[in-house]
Amino acid sequence: MSKVNREVVATRVVYLSQIVPVDLFNVRTTVKGQKGEQSIEELADSIRREGLISPLTVSKSGTVDCYDLISGYRRLEAMLLICKDGQIDTDGYQVNVSVKEYGDLTSKLLGNYVENVRNSVRPADQARRFALLMGKPHELSPATISGSAGVSRSHVSNLSRCWSGLPEEITSHWANPELADLPMAELFKWVKLESSDEQLAAFHEYLDPTPEGGDGEGADEDGDGDDEGKAESAAPAKKEIKEAIGRLLEKSAKMKDKLPLDEKGKLNALQWVVGARKRL
Hints:
Blueprint: E1 10-15, E2 19-21, H1 40-50, E3 56-60, E4 67-71, H2 73-85, E5 94-100, H3 105-116, H4 123-134, H5 142-149, H6 153-165, H7 168-175, H8 184-191, H9 196-207, H10 227-256, H11 261-279
Parallel strand pairs: 2-4, 3-5
Antiparallel strand pairs: 1-5, 3-4
Helix pairs in contact: 1-2, 4-6, 5-6, 6-8, 10-11
């Protein structure tokens, strides 16, 4: 079973060229212009001024004298930008790192999520990582992931199911931080549909809802042009409902004195609710 080690076993200074991302995909993508989130350029400027304040989290790599990057992808990208702009060789750029021990690639990928979960990790990023860890060759159970990541098993299962069970067109939109995020309630509804065609139809309808009946001349919002008739029929119906509620209240008041004490409290609550509906 893959386990995540939260203990730092060593701190050291290494060269930037020795650090290798454990996965091309960073578990935490960010929205451009997001409040409180620095761009890579701003992060690079900060590192130029103040240095690297928080060490990168790494693990020993299978390659000699190299380290797999677990956490700090954006900082790595910023430092690579510094090297590029200043024409500095990465073999000469020194970096502070915290070294942790992980047993295999699976635990490193899980560690990448755990190390980033303290930050704001978008649901799409979580879903992609959970689906990766639950699929081959890693095949972790939702219980193992939830135990290490500090989230519920249902959270892991539901997000993974959305990522694995929806067409790529939907997941690509969901994963893109530059596009409007998709509500989880909609994703859960779509993944329950029987075919990808139905899922895509629901997705397209969500992106571009078109009311039935179109916008033809004289059509109301239901497309049948009969708003006045509906308003006229609604008034008597509302009156009848109020009269029925009134009769119910009168009947319940007569019954009240015959009820046991504990049942009176329930009736009081019922009367309050029904009375509130009558006042609408």
